[in-house]
User: Fold this.
Amino acid sequence: MAEVKAIKGGKLIDGTGAEPVEGATVIIEGSKIKAVGKDIEVPRGAKVIDATGKTVMPGMIDSHLHFFGFLTAGFGGLEGVSRPRELGLIKAIQDARNLLAAGFTMGRDTGGMNSVFLKGAVAEGTLSGMPRILSAGYVISQTGGNADLPYFPLECADARTSRHHTVLRGDGVTIMADGVEGCLSATRYALRQGADFIKTFATGEKDPWEFPYEFQLSVDEMKAIVLAAKGMGAIVTCHSQNSTGTKNAILAGVQCIEHATETNDEVIALAKEHGTIFVSTLTVGYVSLKMEPQMTPQRWGYILPLEQMKAARKNREKVWAQGAESYKRIHKAGLILAAGTDCNSTPGGLEQGKDAKELELLVEYCDFTPMEAIVAATKHGSMACFMEDQIGTIESGKFADIIVVDGDPLADIKLLQDVEKIKIVMLGGKVEVDRGL
Assistant:
């Protein structure tokens, strides 16, 4: 018979956006929530967790992160091509555990094979203490595109041919694809290698030394990716940083847009028509600007002139402000915006375990209430994962992914960044973290 647990007496924030319920009870049977609400009788023999004076809410979801397992600041830099990928994988184990310990019961990895291996190890029973993981595995980039980095030798750039296996290159991240046939083949290969969904690129980056192209893959190429993914039961998400790229992606049938640092009225209208989901990534820009003085003048493994670094900072400030305005517009239009961070385990602020920063930034800069920010990191996160029928809210029949917080995040959203305030982390009914409750 499945073990029964009851969480009693806390303020319930169920993740749906409904008003909190004081003195609520949540009954858990095995891995699932059996009942939730006030005046619910606790079954005899149930293990009771007293949450009086505390907040009970769904485990949070980071809808855009990477388990790269970096050691150094600067988004990897030379480490990405010199450090063996196996070391990054080992560190990623601890990064994933840090994520769970901070109250995030789900991480949606939008590029990198480490998450495929972590998820597989959990399924085999080799690893424990890990959050749920959804993995894009290999990302798909056009030749000379955002994830290609063409100053690398060609034989080191594509996962299918690489002889240079590291965290960022080779079998770590990227498949290059051009044309409809190439995109069909790349998608099927990525899914064969363990991806849960497909990540591709509609635009370049908005950094002056990278690839600020207005658009990258064509509509027909993205349609091919969507078609191949659908045929294998997967969805497609797309990096996009301008309205042209986002429009192309939506018209191609892409279901989810990452970053979305620029949106216009046409994009908003199309997103409403197609039910497009957006994912915010304020944290990566915020921390990048904060870290700038301690970063060496290198980016992805090559040296940048000082003037170019200065220009890059100005550009980042502009792009970050555009992103905040874009998320305001998306939110005001009533569209789905899930909270992501682009955390990639870089020490100095972009490491797993500090992901709740995104909620604070949504409140401070994007006109979200604390409740709306929590929904972005729970219900809307489950929608970005296309798992809303299983996780994201505290409702009967869903997995018991639940946290108990010492204090009220509706009064102070920053509470969720203090891991010591996260007293209980429950994943599928199992208490994975218990800080003395």
Notes: The chain has two domains: 4-58+393-434, 60-384. DSSP finds twelve helices and 20 strands in the chain. The radius of gyration is 21 Å.
